[in-house]
Amino acid sequence: MIFFIEVVLSGLMAGVMYSLVALGFVLIFKASGIFNFAQGVMALFAALTLVGLMEKFGMPIWLAIIGTIAVMIALAWAIERFMLRPLVNQEPIILFMATIGLAYVLEGMGDILWGSDVKMLDLGIPQGASDWMLDSFDIYIEKLEIFAAATAAVMVTFLAIFFQKTRIGRALRAVADDHQAALSVGISLNTIWVIVWSVAGIVALVAGIMWGSKSGVQFSLSLIALKALPVLILGGFTSVPGAIIGGMIIGVGEKVAEIYLGPIIGGAIENWFAYMLALAFLLFRPQGLFGERIIERV
Amino acid sequence: MIYRETGQFKANYQDDQALFPIAQDRYVILAVLLVTFAVVPLLLNQYWLNAILLPFLIYALAALGLNILTGYCGQLSLGTGAFMAVGAFSVFKLMTAIPELGFIPLVILSGLITAAVGTLFGLPSLRIKGFYLAVATLAAQFFLIWLFNKVGWFFNYNATGMITSPPMTLFGVIVTGPSADPVAKYYLVAGFVALFALFAKNITRGRIGRNWMAIRDMDIAAELIGVRPLIAKLSAFAVSSFYVGMAGALYFAVWLGSAEPTEAFDINQSFLVLFMIIIGGLGSVLGSFLGAAFMVTMPILLKNIMVDGLGTDTALAAHIEIITIGVLIIGFLIVEPHGLARLWRIAKEKMRLWPFPH
Q1: Does B333 touch chain A (CB under 8 A)?
Q2: Of A93, A101, A288, which is closest to B330 when you measure between CB atoms?
């Protein structure tokens, strides 16, 4: 029983890590209807920049983080100016392909700027097993994962307040609801897009820090985007809580399946199991758990 | 002036329903076929045939398949790499089990097997749409590749997990395996592609193709006027997978010679083919060819320019290459989101009016 709880808990924690990536997707999809495939590469790029600033320029951690945030905002501006603005009003698939192009550009740029070798990211985030959990409940949990879960909670709270209570947040929701109506009441789409991509960039930085601390900053970091996709379709493309809960369901499902089902059918199933799980959910709720109801008219 | 249908009268229904109703089109197609089959093999050396024309033709076939699904029927799929793998592994199993059937029937058979698998993975399309469907097709991508990697039966329990195509002959000439003659391989693939491009042109203008396009443009409206979504969507998945499977079979058996599922058929393969149809033009047979040509030749060209021309370091060149490809793709989408086929259409319109501006 203890073992099962341990599996479920570590699944929940791993799920939160997926949610961190999925969150960036949701933000951009909500505000611009763009399925941003570059989110994973953005996380890699942010983590690379952070490590690069610390190593090459010897910046202290806080300065490097501020510097990276500045870089991500500059990137958001460049993306809006040179990619989104000329492509406004195009089909979703065209925008999707453009973000794949963007992923290529960022991948190459990150490698040229900061080198393509594996880097360690050490921000002083606690590592190893949590002693308290181990002593009082006899359950093994990584400190890093608890830290990630706490960060995710803080970030979601912050995002919720930002979306619900601030002026910009209201403008963001207006744009998400209806581009044209938002334009006609005087909201500048271009500014909103820069803001959304900046926020997504910062979320990518957080995801990059967590994943980078866990397994080093390297190219495979960009593949976590593929891990986040089933979370997205499970939770719905447009829902922030969906991204979190979807992430947890996927995390738990994956861990439980890996341990109890994996040995039976040959192991290494984590690549596709999440997709199958999400697919099964989709057959019952085509818009995901929390997605907006799809209403179609002729 | 050059491209004008004036004076070409359609006197009977046969003329009216011709595949290429305008005479100029027929001449151009004939000329292209003539160049493909008579001139190219004489003029070009082995490098050109092997490194550029073979992948171009094979990818064009795959792009045709994906274009049927995405361009004509509007169902976005990211599982092309996996379906190519299904074709490759089917043809491998068939080549080792029943080689006496001959190579061409085996390729077609592996296309049919892929069609069955594709229809199975197309079932969710009846329920989910758009990007949700695209992500759902990724399930096929990861699951099938895992399956081919894990289950020994698929690669005949080979210790390396690789599949290698045994030599097979066609009319007494070796067409697969390492000792095959490039010209023979070229003729085989070009024949396949020409035949099935013609078939695609035909099927997309007929009843099935029109049903697909109705589903693409608005599925609810299509349903109301009597198009059955089940049949239309699944047939699109089947035909598309048939093409992609044959492309995968040729890709492995004729071009690569040996393949390993996680590398040769990974998700980048799916994206590559998707880029081809977007850059070539969605919903256009010609576009599939143009897109494949663009995506196959561009990286080779970039590499040649940078490494041989400018003497850039190869690692740096690889990074610059990937950036350039990304920038080109974005730039291309901005300049012409409807693809190269659209440029050709505009050019035809210009030729029609020439020398007058309107």
Answers
A1: yes
A2: A101
Task: Tell me the chain B residues in contact with residue A90 when contact means C-beta distances shorter than 8 Å.
Answer: 333, 337
Is residue A251 within a helix (H) or strand (E), and if so which, with residue range? helix A240-256
Looking at CA atoms only, how far is residue B351 from chain A in angstroms?
28
Asked if B126 is an interface residue toward chain A (Cβ–Cβ < 8 A), one would say: no
Tell me if B90 is assigned to some domain: yes
**Backbone CA torsion sign across A46, B298, B176, B170:** positive
Q: Provide the pLDDT for residue A142.
A: 73
DSSP symbol at B331: H
Sign of the CA dihedral running A78, A32, A28, A200:
positive
For the stretch B311-337, pLDDT in tens is: 667 777 788 888 888 898 888 888 888
Instruction: Give the pLDDT confidence score for residue B227 in this predicted structure.
Output: 92
Number of cross-chain residue pairs from A and B with Cβ atoms under 8 Å apart:
131
Q: Per-residue confidence at B190, pLDDT binned at 50, 70, 90?
A: very high
Range of the domain at B182: 22-265
ipTM of the complex: 0.83
Pick the CATH number of A2-284 from 3.40.50, 1.20.120, 1.10.740, 1.10.3470: 1.10.3470
Q: Is-cis flag, bond preceding B355, omega within 30?
A: yes
CA distance to partner chain B, nearest, from residue A164 (Å): 27
Q: Pick from A221, A213, A201: which is nearest to A61 by CA?
A: A213
Residue of B nearest to A101 (CA): B326
Domain ranges for chain A:
2-284
Query: B79 and B270 in contact (C-beta within 8 Å)?
Result: yes
| Domain annotation covers residue B318 | no
Which residues sit opposite B158 in a β-bridge?
Answer: none
Specify if B17 maps to a domain: no
CA distance A162 to A178: 19
Residues in CB range of B132: below 8 A, 6 or more apart: A233, A237, A282, A286, A287, A288
Which amino acid, residue A254?
E
**Partners of A83 in the beta sheet?**
none
Structural contact between residues B181 and B168, judged by C-beta atoms closer than 8 angstroms: no
Tokens standing for residue B41: 């093999």
Q: Do the Cβ atoms of A279 and B278 come within 8 Å? A: no
In a 13 Å sphere around the CA of A76, the CA atoms on its Cβ side amount to 26
pLDDT grade, residue A197 (50/70/90)? very high
Closest Cβ–Cβ partner in B131, B139, B146 for A268: B146
Q: Is the Cβ pair B131, A237 closer than 8 Å?
A: yes
Q: Which residue in the set B146, B151, B326 is minimally distant from A102, CB to CB?
A: B326
Domain count, chain B: 1
Nearest chain B residue (CA) to A79: B330
* Cα dihedral across residues A139, A142, A145, A150: positive or negative: positive
- Residue B189 maps to a domain: yes
Q: What is the 3-state secondary structure (H, E, C) of A26-56?
A: HHHHHHHCCCCCCHHHHHHHHHHHHHHHHHH
